[in-house]
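JOB MANIFEST
job_type = single_chain_structure
chain_count = 1
residues = 73
[input]
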Amino acid sequence: MTLLQRDRENIELGREEGREEGFQEGRQIGIKMALDIIRLHLDGKEAQEIADQLGLEADFVNQVLEDYAGLPG
């Protein structure tokens, strides 16, 4: 194996690890955002007020609330 081949393999391995870490971090952020939206909704805030307070798009907030309303239980 040449140094160039080893470097290419290491670069690809680094990319794969970076993608996985990015996915996990993004998922954690998404879950936190959804929980913040639901918490504020349960506190009696309207969707637009939640969007303004969290700096999010109103459509995103509405989608999270629709998904939450559709959960069983």
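[summary]
The radius of gyration is 20 Å.
Residues 3-42 form the longest helix (40 residues).
exit_status = 0
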